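Worked example

This section walks through a single chain of length 295. The input is the sequence exactly as stored; nothing has been trimmed or padded.
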Amino acid sequence: MAEKISEPELKPGQQSDKIRLYYLAFFSYAMFVGCYLIYNCINMGVTSLVAGFFQIPTEIHYWKTTFDIPLWWWNQPNVICTFSSGPVSSAVFGIVCLRFFFLFRKEKNWKRLFFLWGYHHGFNLFFGAYVAGVISRSGFRHASNWAAIPVEIEYFIAIGAMICMFLVGFLSVKFFLQMAISQSLLMHHKRNRFITAMVFVPWFFGSLTMILLKTPLITYNEALIFLMMFTSVIPVYIAQRFFYEVSIVRFEKSLGINWFLVVALGLFLFSFRFVLDDGIFVSFHPELVIRWINH
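Given that input, the structure is written out below as tokens.
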């Protein structure tokens, strides 16, 4: 029979590791959702600006960006640039977020967790978006299709993109472990629970939150993009056992919820759905027009 490992006695006012995990899961979930919303807005905004450069009027809605032109107006340059601009900008911001994570990784704040999820979202909206596009025959895949890349090659590129997402996950294992606020959370028999709280729960419930926010008009392509992030979540479970010693930033004080930030996130979610329900119209020709479509 396996020996039961006893829990260390708690000092007066000290939180148990179980309570800490609940707080950490909530913090990580909030960062996941808030970061994705920002990426989503940037992605659609960049796409509409690039389309405007090609004199293509666009409408930004909460479920997708639509283009107000006939099919015959599309050509190879404007299709490739328009449909690749959002994913490429996401990858660039993913690199920027990784850089900012290193700047804040030794500080006692949750900015580092925000930028860590920004790193994951950025590359998922590039590599994951391509795989999702190949499966759904939409989105980012339009760029490679109009670039005359054969379907067989697209599938090979998609496999390569999935491998890249696994690498993104493997490279972030130590970073997630460094989010622990005490070494007791990283004990061998607790690590899976810690990773579940910091990575799996935020991804699963965060993705579900965004899908519900965009229901009933969420596209098949975007739902697949959320699913694709699973390829960077699984490696964290696999590789965490290889990191025996991890330096962390200890939190002496008890964890608590910043209700101002919770309300701010709730307002962000509400505003995103309310404003983009009608949509925002963007056009550069014959004049610059950016307006809320308030029917």
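What to look for: The longest helix spans residues 17-53.
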